[in-house]
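Researcher: Structure prediction, please.
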Amino acid sequence: MSESRTSPATPAHPVTDRVREALAQSLRGADELLPEADWVKKLAKSEATGVPLRIKLGLDPTAPDIHIGHTVVLNKMRQLQDLGHQVIFLIGDFTSMIGDPSGRNSTRPPLTKEQILANAETYYKQASLVLDPARTEIRYNSEWSDPLGAAGMIQLASKYTVARMMERDDFTKRFAAQTPISVHEFLYPLMQGYDSVALKSDLELGGTDQKFNLLMGRHLQQEYGQEPQCILTMPLLEGLDGVDKMSKSKNNYIGITEPANTMFAKVLSISDELMWKWFTLLSFRSLAEIAALKAEVVGGRNPKDAKVLLAKEITARFHSAAAAESAEADFNNRAKGGIPDEVPEVSLGGAPLMIGKVLLGAGLVASGGEATRMIEQGGVKIDGVTISDKALKLEAGTFVAQVGKRKFARVTLGA
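Model: Predicted structure follows.
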């Protein structure tokens, strides 16, 4: 999608040190800021007039839970919020019914209104762990999309051509591969762009996969005679494996509602190399602090020390400082072979019972095959003792079963 550089004439305002600081904060960890010169003008105008800029983030509630990969853009929103600007948390209840085709090689199944509303209930509550709720404007795009109606939709569709829509990378690839593209998928970027018109957005944030949709907002604002928004794309956060983007389907994620001990341990499991990207995108420490910490590690300090600081910061954000301290103590206890303070309790019957069935019944493995594999790898312990006998039968009683480093259950086994 080509980018127009034209914008309405704007009176010149001085670029002060505060404006330069705001620009640096905007660019921190960002992939692209387009057009940067226009954003500087907007910041300078806001500084001179005292009128906050309107900063929009739209999220479709396609699932009820948010993982920390989603918080990369939320963190940026909070940074801009702390600079005094008005952030708008837009819940895409209307656009969710279309289904975002971004990055898809097939049509995304649309959600029902009931599914969307159920997911949206918990969405903002979770986002509020990052954003300041008192300074956040919450909107639903059905507010202006529903009243648009068929006539309004046709008028909106007339403002963009099929040829330019087909410039979109995922549409181009699907068309070349003769993979079906439904007509309603063309409506998604149009409706997301129209959100920017309705909200008179100055800046829209999104992941790098949203660039086409964000630029659509600029185009439509110009069509409707508004000063076009700038766009700020943030990189997609690699998950725990350091390879794929964080995703529940890849099981490489940290949910922001996960227990503090689990969250802390998962952060410590990432690679030393990935840690620094996570610091830039997830930490609220200054870039100068992070650079100093990195220099200490290069100079010989144990990288784990830095990773512990990151794990405690992230855990404290979604739980509390006390919970983060407790999680660190729990992790250290486990590292010494100890049993964590909080262990799920499970009651089973059928003693004497095969070890594989005990592990499966306690929810510590997903299948008998996984139980066998973990025993063969020396990853199964009963009351701290490693089990090597796959045919072991456990008698009635209460004991702590452990699989791997982080899965525990206190099992009460009856006859």
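Model: Residues 2-10 have pLDDT under 50 and may be disordered.
Researcher: Thanks, that helps.
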